[in-house]
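Incident log, support desk, overnight shift.

02:14 A customer reports that sequence design results differ from what the structure should imply. Their input is reproduced verbatim below. On-call engineer (initials T.W.) acknowledged and began investigating.
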């Protein structure tokens, strides 16, 4: 089946939802394509996670975000964005993976997906950066015991856990699983923990490491993962540890595979930043826009929900202005 729209939005995270809201307000015929579930990235956050941002800074669509405390939980955020999609009756096609985008002669794009084909003269890519984990690229990474997304501590009680990483997620996971009774070891590639670890987390994890409650191997890397062991390469030589689970909290990247399929150009800088006009948010392709944290490339601490919320209005206003200009030119 083929569908025709004024605007196709790829990604039903906060940025994509926001674009859908603005498109609805302007009377555009639009559709949001989501390969997973609503706010898929937030859904994959740890079950008991609390946001660093306040609820006010996460608000979109002129709908208040009321939480029990100043900083909302994952559960509250999921309910908030669900309520928004219901309020605006957003047109979202779930479990729809984009496979290809072709520029047609009539100044439109044809997007082929896992379900149907979609035609539109305007496209917004709002795919975030949480969809693709940074892989360890070591033998055994394909074992089911290796987790790139953390859920909750309960499954790891009494088990031997290796937490890989040095940033917020790794420190949070190491502390939470240790507090629930897991035997936790950390593996850090550099000589210290990331300096941007939350100020209320850093002293806690440092103290646990210094007292020996959570052993930590610095300047080390993972060499091999097997069903019952892991092998580490450390400054003192190779170390073999008993292991039940590897929690690889090594960060995430934009979906570059999808960006290449869409033929969006990527810069040659160290952060592999997608090329776009910072004023209009138009990518290297005409009438194809980038919205949200995907604009930061690998520099994942550059953009957040709170500093990209106005992008949707800017993009949709530009689209409607161009539509009106085309209508006037034919009169």
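02:41 Re-run completed on a clean worker. Output:
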């Amino acid at each position: 089946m083929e569908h025709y729209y004024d605007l196709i939005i790829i990604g039903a995270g906060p940025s994509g939802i926001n674009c859908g809201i603005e498109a609805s307000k302007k009377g555009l015929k639009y559709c949001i394509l989501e390969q997973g579930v609503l706010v898929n990235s937030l859904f994959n956050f740890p079950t008991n996670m609390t946001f660093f941002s306040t609820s006010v800074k996460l608000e979109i669509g002129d709908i208040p975000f009321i939480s029990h405390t100043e900083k909302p939980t994952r559960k509250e955020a999921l309910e908030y964005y669900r309520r928004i999609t219901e309020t605006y009756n957003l047109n979202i096609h779930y479990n729809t993976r984009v496979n290809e985008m072709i520029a047609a002669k009539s100044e439109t794009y044809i997007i082929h997906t896992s379900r149907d084909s979609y035609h539109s003269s305007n496209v917004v890519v709002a795919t975030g950066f949480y969809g693709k984990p940074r892989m360890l690229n070591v033998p055994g990474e394909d074992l089911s015991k290796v987790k790139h997304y953390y859920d909750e501590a309960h499954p790891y009680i009494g088990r031997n856990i290796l937490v890989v990483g040095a940033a917020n997620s790794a420190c949070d996971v190491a502390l939470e699983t240790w507090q629930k009774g897991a035997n936790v070891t950390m593996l850090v590639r550099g000589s210290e923990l990331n300096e941007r670890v939350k100020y209320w987390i850093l002293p806690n994890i440092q103290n646990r490491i210094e007292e020996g409650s959570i052993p930590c191997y610095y300047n080390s890397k993972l060499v091999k993962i097997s069903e019952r062991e892991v092998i580490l390469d450390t400054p003192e030589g190779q170390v073999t540890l008993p292991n039940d689970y590897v929690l690889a909290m090594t960060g995430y990247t934009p979906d570059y595979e999808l960006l290449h399929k869409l033929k969006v150009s990527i810069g040659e800088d160290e952060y592999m930043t997608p090329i776009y006009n910072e004023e209009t948010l138009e990518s290297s392709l005409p009438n194809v826009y980038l919205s949200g944290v995907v604009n930061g490339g690998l520099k994942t601490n550059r953009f957040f929900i709170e500093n990209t919320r106005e992008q949707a209005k800017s993009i949709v206003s530009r689209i409607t202005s161009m539509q009106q200009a085309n209508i006037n030119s034919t009169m």
